[in-house]
Automatic annotation (TrEMBL):
<dbReference type="GO" id="GO:0055085">
    <property type="term" value="P:transmembrane transport"/>
</dbReference>
<keyword id="KW-0997">Cell inner membrane</keyword>
<comment type="function">
    <text>Part of the ABC transporter complex LptBFG involved in the translocation of lipopolysaccharide (LPS) from the inner membrane to the outer membrane.</text>
</comment>
<keyword id="KW-1003">Cell membrane</keyword>
<dbReference type="GO" id="GO:0015920">
    <property type="term" value="P:lipopolysaccharide transport"/>
</dbReference>
<feature type="transmembrane region" description="Helical">
    <location>
        <begin position="59"/>
        <end position="80"/>
    </location>
</feature>
<protein>
    <recommendedName>
        <fullName>Lipopolysaccharide export system permease protein LptF</fullName>
    </recommendedName>
</protein>
<keyword id="KW-1133">Transmembrane helix</keyword>
<feature type="transmembrane region" description="Helical">
    <location>
        <begin position="12"/>
        <end position="32"/>
    </location>
</feature>
<feature type="transmembrane region" description="Helical">
    <location>
        <begin position="297"/>
        <end position="318"/>
    </location>
</feature>
<comment type="similarity">
    <text>Belongs to the LptF/LptG family.</text>
</comment>
<dbReference type="InterPro" id="IPR030922">
    <property type="entry name" value="LptF"/>
</dbReference>
<keyword id="KW-0472">Membrane</keyword>
<keyword id="KW-0812">Transmembrane</keyword>
<dbReference type="InterPro" id="IPR005495">
    <property type="entry name" value="LptG/LptF_permease"/>
</dbReference>
<keyword id="KW-0813">Transport</keyword>
<dbReference type="Pfam" id="PF03739">
    <property type="entry name" value="LptF_LptG"/>
</dbReference>
């Protein structure tokens, strides 16, 4: 038990550090993206931290299996570098014993990942999507920066408002530039207000002029109006969402739709991958002390990238009906499990290790 406690302590400390680093990297990246959307006016500043928190919880279903995988690679890599693992193996601690420890720790960790993947992450997505819908239903004036030119979404339309009205319900001295049917269009108005009609967002302009075409040409027109509505596409304000990813897991169990079956299998894949990747890391971490702690680290990263990409491809195939649900994305896990079994046979006692009967100490790597 002393060996198990020591290995567990080493693994737990590394897992905590790796998880913290990965989480910090993700939060920093997503926070920068949210700041950009606040500057563009598509996200309100007062909900940025709530969105960041919900997105961070959602990301844990991906970060946790990766963190556990890297933790095993780094922790065991250090033990091999400092010859501690070599000494353990030489003293009769079989690789079977080490692998069994990682397996049971991985099972416990996979239960946490399953809780996040099956319940917490879908809830966080649903809350985030609902918040985005609520933002799209507001007037959006809180996001308008007076005195700044702003592009509306991915379009070529440029919007400008000199200032917000004193009552806070509109904008004054509004300018809009866009292209319609190949012709330049300019609209200026004394006042503008955003309104929602039939689920669509409009900018209601009052007391202004519309200039169509190029000055000096025959088709150039100037139109004066008392009221004029400009359609703002919903996608320019609200982020695109995948509603299936927010469906409760209990509903996915009862569904036969390909995209919902794929989503369910994807959620289950997270805890499964946590165990399989950890077992793989036990053998990938085996290095010669002279090779250094990170000798197999980049190989491990490459293996993870290939594995995660295959999972993504398999999920897409299930969604499109190219693969039967019974096969689903399980074949990817099967390939990884096969790789783990082959490494077991190659590195530590063959069939006896698979059966958990290995007593003889495994040879240290040369």
């Amino acid at each position: 038990m002393i060996i198990e406690r020591y290995l567990f302590k080493e693994l737990a400390g590394t897992l905590f550090a790796v998880t913290a680093v990965l989480f910090l990297i993700f939060v920093s990246s997503w926070f920068a993206r949210l700041l950009g959307r606040v500057a563009a006016g598509s996200v309100q500043a007062d909900v940025i931290f709530l969105l960041l928190g919900l997105k961070s919880v959602d990301a844990l279903m991906i970060l946790l299996p990766l963190a556990f995988y890297l933790a095993v690679l780094l922790a065991f890599g250090r033990l091999y570098k400092d010859s501690e693992m070599t000494a353990m193996l030489a003293c009769g601690v079989s690789l079977t014993r080490v692998t069994r420890l990682v397996f049971w720790v991985g099972v416990g960790f996979a239960l946490v990942v399953a809780l996040v993947s099956l319940y917490v992450a879908p809830w966080a997505r649903g809350e985030r999507y609902q918040l985005q819908e609520e933002m799209s239903a507001t007037t959006g004036l809180e996001a308008v920066a007076a005195g700044q030119f702003r592009e509306l979404g991915e379009s070529d339309v440029v919007f400008y408002a000199e200032r917000l009205s004193k009552d806070g319900e509109g904008m004054e001295n509004v300018f809009i530039q866009g292209v319609r049917k190949g012709n330049l269009n300019l609209v200026v108005a004394e006042r503008g207000t955003q309104v929602i009609e039939a689920g669509a967002r409009y900018l209601l302009l009052k007391n202004g002029y519309r200039y169509e075409g190029i000055p000096g040409q025959a088709d150039f027109r100037i139109i004066q109006f008392a009221a004029h509505k400009v359609l703002l596409q919903q996608s320019e304000v609200v982020l695109q969402v995948d509603e299936t990813s927010a469906v409760a897991t209990r509903q996915l169990w009862q569904s036969q739709k390909p995209h919902e079956v794929a989503e369910l299998q994807w959620r289950i894949a997270m805890p499964v991958s946590a165990v399989l990747l950890a077992l793989l890391a036990v053998f990938l971490s085996r290095t010669n002390p002279r090779q250094g702690r990170y000798a197999k680290f980049f190989l491990g990263i490459l293996v993870y990238v290939i594995y995660s990409n295959l999972l993504g491809v398999a999920k897409t195939w299930v969604e499109r009906g190219k693969v039967e649900p019974w096969l689903g994305i399980w074949w990817v896990h099967g390939l990884l499990l096969l790789a783990v079994l082959l490494l077991m046979l190659q590195h530590a006692g063959g069939v006896r290790l698979l059966l958990g009967r290995g007593r003889a100490p495994a040879r240290a790597p040369r």
